[in-house]
Write a structure and sequence with these properties.
The chain has 18 helices and 18 strands. By secondary structure, the protein is α/β, with parallel strands linked by helices. Among the domains are: about 80 residues; about 200 residues, Rossmann fold.
Length: about 525
Amino acid sequence: MLEARGLSVEVGGRLTLGGATFAVRAGDKVGLVGRNGAGKTSLLRVLAGEMPPSGGSVRVHGALGWLTQEPRNVSGDVASSGLEHVLSGRGLDEQAKRLEKLRLSMEESPSSRAIERFSRAEERFSSAGGYAAEAEVRKLAAGLGLGDGRLDLPVSVLSGGERRRLELARILFAGSDALLLDEPTNHLDIDAKAWLVGFLRSYRGALLVVSHDIEMLDASITTVMHLDEGELVQYKGTFSQYRQARAADEARNAKLAERQASEIKRLSTLAESMRHQTAKRARVAKVLDKRVAHLKAAGVPPAVRQERRYNVAFPPPPHCGRVVVEVAGLAKAYDTEPVFQNVDFAVERGQRLLVMGLNGAGKTSLLRILAGTSTPTQGTWRTGVGVSVGYYAQEHEGIQAGRSVIDHLREESGAPETELRGLLGMFGLVGEKAFQDASTLSGGEKTKLALAQLVAGRHNCLLLDEPTNNLDPPSREGVGRALSEWPGAMVVVSHDTTFVAELAPDRVLTMPDGTEDAWDEDDLELVSLA
C-alpha cells in the first residue's frame, strides 16, 4: 500500500502539489492524469523515494516497483544479458552466479564443506523459484514483445524501446506489492499493450499509473486522480467516466460562479446606491458591504481547467537542393551483432518517409546515423546542397542537466529573448519555466522543448523519432497538425496511428530489410504493430 499525508511537492521553485492526503491500497488501480507539466512524474518520484517531498510524508508498505518514464534510466550493468537484468528483479541473477561459483569450487575440491555450501545455496535458489524463473521471464518478455533471442543479448546492444520493455519486464517479474508506472505503454505495439492491460487487470497489488493512453486507462484502471494547479481531485471509474464527471463539475462550477458574481454585483450596486443617502440607509450599505466581503472571502469554486489548444507552427523551410538525403549500402552492428545491412534509399525535397519495423530493427540507429550522432558500420550517406538537419531524439539526449530551458533555444537561434520566450509559450512552456533547469522538466515538457529547438533551428529536413510520446492529447493534436502542414522533408519513426494518418507519408521504409515502397492507407494497420 502507498499512503501520503499532507504531501507537498515542489519542482523548480513551483508548488505542483499542496498538502494532499490519499492512499492506494492493494487491489486499487489508479490512473494519475493531468496536463504536461502538472507534476505527475514528480509526484511519482516522491512516492518512489527518488525525490524528497517539500512537506508531508509518504509510507510504502511492502516492496515497490517503479518504472521511470525515460528508457535511458534503465538500471543495471549494460554488459549483462537481458535475461540476467530481468532476473535481477528478484535477485536471482546474483544467486545463480554464486551457485555456479560454488559448483565449480565443489568440483575442484569436493570436500564435505564445499558440498554443504553448494547444497544450501541450491536449496535457497530452488525455493526462490530459480529453476523455473528463466521460463517465466521468457514468457513475460514475449508478452511485452521482446523476442526470445533478444533476451540473450547484452543490454548495451538493445534499442531504447527494447530497454524500456526489458525494465518493465524486470519490474513485473519482481512481484512487488505496489507498482508505480510512468507511461508504461511507450514503445509497446498493439499486442504488447493488450498483454499489459491483461496483466494490470489481474494484478492484486496497489497500482498507480501515469499515462496518456486513453484505451489502456479505460481498460485497466478503476479510479482517476487528476492533478492540476497543485490540487489532487479523485474520481471513481474509468478514464471516460472521469471525463464525463469532470465535464459535469466544470458546468456546475461555472453556473455557481456566474450566480455568485451576479449576486456580488447586485449587492455592490445596491450598497453604492444607498451609501450617500440617509444614515439608516448608510448603515444598510455597510451590512451589504460585509455580505459582499463574505461572498468574496468564501471564494468561488474554481472552474475546472479546460484542456488548452496548442497553436504550434513550424516556420517555412529554407530552400535546398532536390535530393535531401541519400543512403547507399548502409549497415550497422553493435559489437558483432548486426542490426541492419545493405539499406538504400533517398529522400527528396518535401518528401515524408515513414520508417517502420519491430523494436530492435534499427529504426533509431538509422536516424542517429543520419543525424551524425552515430557512425555506420558500412556504407555511405550524404545530405544535399543547402540541407539543414534537425533531429528529435526519443530519449531527449540533447537536453542537458544544469542548463535552463531558454539556454537550450539560444543554442539553436540567435533570436532575441522575447522571440524565444514566445516560441516556448507556443509549446506551453511559459513564465518562470523558461529559466528552469531543463533536466527537471516532465517527460512531456522535455518533448515540447526538443520540438521547440527544432522550430528555433529553422531546418528543412527533420528526423523525428517518436515525436508524440509523452504528450498530452491537446499537445499531440497541435504538434501533429503543425507537422502535417509543414512542407519540409521528414524521416519519421512513430507508433502513433493518429499522428501518422495526419502526416500522410509519401513512402515507407521497412527495417531491418531496408525495403522501400509507396505509402498506402492499408499500411496504417501496421503502424501500431511495428
